[in-house]
Amino acid sequence: PGQPEPGADRDSDAPPKKRLKLPGGAEGGGGGVKLEERLYSVLCCTVCLDLPKASVYQCTNGHLMCAGCFIHLLADARLKEEQATCPNCRCEISKSLCCRNLAVEKAVSELPSECGFCVRQFPRSLLERHQKEECQDRVTRCKYKRIGCPWQGPYHELTVHEAECTHPTKTGNELMEILDEMDQTHKKEMQLYNSIFSLLSFEKIGYTEVQFRPYRTDDFITRLYYETPRFTVLNQTWVLKARVNDSERNPNLSCKRTLSFQLILKSKINSPMECSFLLLKGPYDDVKINPVIYHFVFTNENNETDYVPLPIIDSVECNKLLAAKNINLRLFIFQIQK
User: Fold this and answer.
1) CA angle 210-93-261, nearest 5°?
2) pLDDT digits (tens, 9 = 90+) for 166-207
3) Digit-coded pLDDT (tens) for 119-134
4) Which residue stretches of 200-268 are H helix?
5) Where are the beta strands (DSSP E) in the chain?
């Protein structure tokens, strides 16, 4: 009988032998670079070249994008009236064509990352808790900040500072001046909520879900704008319009993004119609909007409000809206009775 082939008696399901450890601490190449460092370059976003902090999206060819860059690419394409494409392979990308890569998200969460305060390294999944609750070098405020102490510093110095803080020993008159300033800030916040509660007591209140759809102007250089279909509130017909960065020529070149909107009364009315109105996020959106109440008196001759800011909190939230197929919000109108 012939001799068995070398290795024929080995169990085919047995795990492979461990590779020999090479000089310099690298296994099988890598030039001595740590595995974590090599993974950084593999798992980083192809746009900003940083490790994603939250959701990770991939194009149909597998190239990775962090949520912020993905949304920004979609928003830029909407502004330029182009199809968004992957920066690496130029395949088309959209919310329906791209999907999240949960394996990469999990891998990134386990990679070590540096604390911004103490410079120690932790898995990303634990870093937020460490920076907020555990780090002895995290920036914190004095417990007497409510009576005007401006001190802030590393947590490990907090006990010493609070033992020496002079604010608890201030006189009543000194504290009154500090508290008056704080009251002014609080008063502005309360005015908004009191105004909303006051409006909710009105006899004629209407609200509806509105959907802004994107359109283009007929200019030589077209501009993006949004408009809703006609809708009925308080037995009147209305339309909303919105524009980006107050219709500046090339909003895609600007890092700062804003939206402003205009309410238009389409019905004919017999007498002036005085209204307060505000836009809020819809029931199925996660955009962050700070409510602002606007006021206008509608007549047949003056049936359009000026463009007023849509009070989204920052450009990131604006990009979320621009990246969406449509913008869905909720409009409230309160008619003021004479």
Assistant:
1) 25
2) 888 888 887 887 788 778 878 888 888 888 888 988 989 999
3) 888 888 888 889 999 9
4) none
5) 56-58, 64-66, 99-100, 112-114, 121-123, 139-141, 152-154, 204-216, 224-227, 231-233, 236-244, 259-265, 273-281, 294-298, 308-309, 327-335
Among candidate residues 57, 107, 110, 114, the one with its CA nearest the CA of residue 87: 57
> What's the alpha-carbon Rg for the chain, to the nearest Å?
29
What is the rounded distance in angstroms from the CA atom of residue 115 to the CA atom of residue 121? Answer: 6
Contact partners, residue 132, CB within 8 Å, separation at least 6: 138
The burial class, CB within 10 Å (0-12 / 13-18 / 19+), for 56 is buried
**Residue 72 exposed, middle or buried by CB count within 10 Å (0-12, 13-18, 19+):** buried
Kindly report the number of other CB atoms within 10 A of residue 224's CB atom: 20
- Contact at 8 Å (CB) between 153 and 161? yes
Q: What share of the chain is helix, strand, coil (3-state, %, to 5)?
A: 30, 25, 45
Q: Give, to the nearest 10 degrees, the angle between helix 315-323 and helix 67-80.
A: 60
Give the start-end residues of each E strand in 6-46.
Answer: none
Start-end of H helices in 18-120: 35-43, 67-80, 102-110
Q: What is the pTM of this model?
A: 0.64
What is the Cα–Cα distance from 235 to 274, expressed in whole angstroms?
14
Tokens of 43: 């798992």
